[in-house]
């Protein structure tokens, strides 16, 4: 089973990396096109779980313990085959 | 219009961050559950494009020029709204 975890900074938290990328895109000629850039992490886990429910529960624990800093980040989990 | 760009290391390229995370998950008690971890970036762009086709073309240019290192990374683009 496979889990895709997207971790992004909460709304309102300064996104340095996103700001720098936005600025770089502006200087590369995309000033008119780009309104906002935000950068997060995508974590792809290969799991030995027997059911989607079990996988979801385990990955939620992993997010709370390690994968996300829940003070400043939100995460969402997608479980696929 | 919104574009979501997922950038991940190509298969075969050593994923240090993924390896370290895998190890950390093992020591936290997920040794039986986790088979593999890979970590990539998720870039969320807010765009001023008038059509999906235009947005797709612009974001492809951004990926080739800045957002991905195409020697070692793959990217995929999803346009929404």
TrEMBL record, chains A, B:
Pathway: Purine metabolism; IMP biosynthesis via de novo pathway; 5-amino-1-(5-phospho-D-ribosyl)imidazole from N(2)-formyl-N(1)-(5-phospho-D-ribosyl)glycinamide: step 1/2
Keywords of the record: ATP-binding, Cytoplasm, Ligase, Nucleotide-binding, Purine biosynthesis
A single GO BP: 'de novo' IMP biosynthetic process
Matching SUPFAM superfamilies: PurS-like
Enzyme Commission code(s) on record: 6.3.5.3
Pfam families: PurS (PF02700)
Location of the protein in the cell: Cytoplasm
Molecular function (Gene Ontology), one example: phosphoribosylformylglycinamidine synthase activity
Signal peptide segment: none
Primary location recorded for the protein, binned into one broad class: cytoplasm
GO cellular component: cytoplasm
Catalyzed chemical reaction(s): N(2)-formyl-N(1)-(5-phospho-beta-D-ribosyl)glycinamide + L-glutamine + ATP + H2O = 2-formamido-N(1)-(5-O-phospho-beta-D-ribosyl)acetamidine + L-glutamate + ADP + phosphate + H(+)
Top-level lineage group: Bacteria
UniProt enzyme class: ligase
InterPro entries hit by this protein: PurS, PurS-like_sf
Assembly and binders: Part of the FGAM synthase complex composed of 1 PurL, 1 PurQ and 2 PurS subunits.
Function of the protein: Part of the phosphoribosylformylglycinamidine synthase complex involved in the purines biosynthetic pathway. Catalyzes the ATP-dependent conversion of formylglycinamide ribonucleotide (FGAR) and glutamine to yield formylglycinamidine ribonucleotide (FGAM) and glutamate. The FGAM synthase complex is composed of three subunits. PurQ produces an ammonia molecule by converting glutamine to glutamate. PurL transfers the ammonia molecule to FGAR to form FGAM in an ATP-dependent manner.
Membership in a protein family: Belongs to the PurS family.
Name of the molecule in the record: Phosphoribosylformylglycinamidine synthase subunit PurS
Gene name tied to this protein: purS
């Amino acid at each position: 089973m496979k889990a895709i975890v997207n971790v992004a900074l909460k709304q309102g938290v300064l996104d340095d990396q996103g700001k720098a990328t936005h600025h770089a895109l502006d200087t590369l000629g995309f000033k008119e096109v780009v309104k906002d850039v935000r950068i997060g992490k995508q974590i792809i886990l290969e799991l030995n779980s027997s059911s989607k429910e079990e996988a979801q529960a385990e990955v939620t624990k992993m997010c709370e313990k390690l994968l996300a800093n829940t003070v400043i980040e939100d995460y969402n989990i997608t479980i696929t085959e």
